[in-house]
Amino acid sequence: HPNPVCGPALTLASPSLFPAPSPWASPQVLHSFIGTAGAFLAWRSVSWSAATEGVVVHTGSRIEECNTCAGVYLLGHLFGAWAFYQLTWLLLGWQKGFDNWAHHLMFCTIAVINPYFFTIYEATGFALAMEISSPALSAMIIFRSATGRMQLLGSTWDYREIETAAGLVFCPVFLVVRVLLFGYGLWRSVQVWFVQPESVMVALGSRASGAKLIQGIYFAAWLLQLFWARIVVKKVLRKIRGQPKKHLEADNAKSK
Length: 256
Description:
The chain is mainly α. The protein is built from ten helices and two strands; from the N terminus they run H-H-H-H-H-E-E-H-H-H-H-H. Helix 2 packs antiparallel against helix 3 and helix 4 (121-129) packs antiparallel against helix 6 (159-190). The protein is elongated, with a radius of gyration of 20 Å. The protein starts with 25 loop residues before the first helix and ends with a helix.
């Protein structure tokens, strides 16, 4: 289904496969940009449109809805290249675990089929907004893996203190953007099958099966966020309570 807005998600050049990811440079800027821009576009769609209008652009769509859809899929191009770059982290052994494989493979699949079917753009905005939590997660992993102190905000901070502070930021942000908001966006998108407005269903046409596939992948991804949310909350509570180091190390091993 060609469309005038977006091409395949792989049209952008992918970063090099070999260097280890930089902790403070382009990845964090990319996460921050994609996350905040995705959240903004999702908010625009929710503010201007009924739940069923964020599924597909149709003949009755307003210009604001068309622009929001275009913005989401332009961001999706950028995220698509990044998703495939992150997949190499698994192939090179930088990340491990079935949950990480499932997460990256699901979003690599989404990066390919979303621009093809060109549907479910509002929920895609909410999915992109999940990246808001990634910078705090990266800070946790970085300072957990090193020892030392650094000057920050006019004071000397131990790396463990920075890790704890990053965790206290990461936990609520994760729960808000990855569990609540993403779940809300997905819930809005599935309402189209209950309401079935004529103009939207006509515009979907043969793409209805593709829209259901995308929603199914998003639902599986949301369940994975629920699984991770339990681990995140458990670890933060243990950190706050000052649980013995051996238990924290066991949790850290599970999350890598």
